[in-house]
C-alpha cells in the first residue's frame, strides 16, 4: 500500500449530503474530506482547492470536481489530488460502471492550463507548432525510457507539427538517483543542450545511487556532458524542480509518463503517432 493510500483511505461508499446545488462551497468540501476521505487521524486537513469543475457526457447530471487537498503529516506539507463527483446534494470519490467495472476517477484528468506551455519548458519543436505535447516524466522510469525518446524524435523530425513541453517528475521513492539526474537535465536544457536531456534517458546507473560525485561522473563518461555540483545545487535549479512538482500536483499527476496532447490526457500514450499521418 502506498503512503498516499495510508494517508487517505477513501472508499467507494463514502458519500455525504452537501447542498442542493451542484457546486458546494469550500466549507462543505472540507467537511467531506475530513469525514470521508482522510481516515488517518495523524493527517491534518488544512484546505481543499478546486482546480477545475467539469462535466462528462458519460455521467449525465454529475459535476466533476478536480481538487487538491492541502494536508499536513508529520510536520510535512502534502498536496494530494482528489476527484469528487457531485449530484443532487451528494458527493462521492468513486463512480463505478457495474457493467464494465470502470471507475471514472481513473479516466478523468484536469485540462492543461495555457500557462504550462511556456518557453522554459519547451524542449523540442517550434512553439507555434500545430500540436502541443506536454510530458511529465522520470528518466529512470522504464516506461519513460521506452516511450519518451520516441516522442522527442517525432518532434525533432516534425518541428512545425509538434512541440514538446517537458516537466520533471522524479519518482524518488523508486529512483533516488533521479533527484540529481533531473537537475542535470534542467541545467543542460537551459544551456541549450537538448541532446543531453535525451541522452540521460539511456544512462546506465544504479537507480538507488545518491552519491552526487558518482552520478555526475557517470553523466560525463556516458554523455560527454560536464556539470558541477554547484550548478546542480543552485537555488534556481531546486526552485524549478519544486515548481514542476507543484505543476504535477495541480494536474493530478501521480505516475510517469503522463502525457497530454493539445491539452487532453493521452491515456494510451500513443497519440503522438496520429499527429504525423
Task: Summarize the structure in words.
With 277 residues, this protein is an alpha+beta fold. The chain folds into 2 domains: 3-107; 114-276, Glutaredoxin (3-Layer(aba) Sandwich), CATH 3.40.30. The chain is built from 8 helices and 10 strands. It has helices at residues 3-8, 26-37, 142-157, 178-190, 194-199, 212-223, 229-232, 235-250; strands at residues 15-17, 43-54, 63-73, 76-87, 90-92, 122-124, 131-137, 162-168, 258-261, 264-265. The strands form 2 sheets. It has a 5-stranded antiparallel sheet with strand order 1-5-4-3-2. The protein has a 5-stranded mixed sheet with strand order 6-8-7-9-10, sandwiched between helices. Helix 3 (142-157) links the parallel strand 7 and strand 8. Helix 4 (178-190) crosses helix 8 (235-250). The longest helix is centred in the middle third of the chain and has 16 residues, at 142-157. The protein is globular.
Quick recap:
With 277 residues, this protein is α+β, with helices and mostly antiparallel strands. It has eight helices and ten strands.
Give the SSE order as H and E letters.
HEHEEEEEEHEHHHHHEE
Taking strands numbered 1, 2, ... along the chain, how are they ordered across the largest sheet?
1-5-4-3-2
Work out the radius of gyration: 20 Å
List segments where confidence is low: pLDDT < 50 over at least 5 consecutive residues: 9-21
Percent helix range: 25-40%
Instruction: Indicate the mean pLDDT.
Output: 91
Number of helices: 8
Structural class: alpha+beta
What is the CATH topology classification name of the largest domain?
A: Glutaredoxin
Number of domains: 2
Total strands: 10
CATH superfamily of the largest domain: Glutaredoxin
What's the architecture of the largest domain, going by CATH? Answer: 3-Layer(aba) Sandwich
Q: Which range does the strand content fall in?
A: 15-25%
Largest sheet: 5 strands, antiparallel
CATH classification class of the largest domain: Alpha Beta
Shape: globular
Distance between the termini: 42 Å
Amino acid at each position: 500500500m502506498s503512503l498516499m493510500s495510508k494517508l487517505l483511505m477513501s472508499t467507494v461508499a463514502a458519500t455525504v449530503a452537501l447542498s442542493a446545488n451542484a457546486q458546494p462551497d469550500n466549507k462543505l468540501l472540507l467537511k467531506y474530506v475530513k469525514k470521508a476521505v482522510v481516515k488517518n487521524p495523524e493527517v491534518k486537513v488544512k484546505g481543499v482547492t478546486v482546480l477545475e469543475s467539469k462535466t462528462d457526457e458519460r455521467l449525465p447530471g454529475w459535476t466533476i470536481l478536480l481538487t487538491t487537498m492541502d494536508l499536513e503529516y508529520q510536520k510535512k506539507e502534502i498536496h494530494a489530488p482528489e476527484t469528487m463527483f457531485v449530484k443532487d446534494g451528494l458527493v462521492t470519490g468513486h463512480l463505478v460502471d457495474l457493467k464494465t467495472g470502470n471507475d471514472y476517477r481513473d479516466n478523468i484528468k484536469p485540462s492543461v492550463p495555457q500557462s504550462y506551455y511556456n518557453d522554459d519548458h519547451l524542449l523540442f519543436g517550434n512553439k507555434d507548432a500545430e500540436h502541443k505535447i506536454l510530458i511529465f516524466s522520470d528518466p529512470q522510469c522504464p516506461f519513460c525510457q521506452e516511450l519518451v525518446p520516441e516522442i522527442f524524435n517525432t518532434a525533432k523530425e516534425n518541428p512545425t507539427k509538434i512541440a514538446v513541453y517537458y516537466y520533471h517528475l522524479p519518482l524518488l521513492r523508486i529512483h533516488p538517483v533521479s533527484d540529481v539526474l533531473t537537475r542535470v537535465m534542467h541545467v543542460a536544457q537551459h544551456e541549450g543542450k537538448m541532446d543531453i536531456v535525451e541522452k540521460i534517458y539511456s544512462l546506465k546507473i544504479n537507480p538507488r545511487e545518491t552519491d552526487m560525485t558518482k552520478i555526475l561522473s557517470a553523466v560525463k563518461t556516458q554523455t560527454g556532458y560536464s556539470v558541477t555540483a554547484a550548478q546542480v545545487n543552485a537555488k534556481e535549479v531546486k526552485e524549478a524542480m519544486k515548481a514542476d512538482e507543484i505543476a504535477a500536483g495541480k494536474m493530478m499527476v501521480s505516475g510517469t509518463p503522463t502525457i497530454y496532447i493539445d491539452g487532453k490526457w493521452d491515456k494510451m500514450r500513443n497519440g503522438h503517432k496520429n499527429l504525423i499521418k
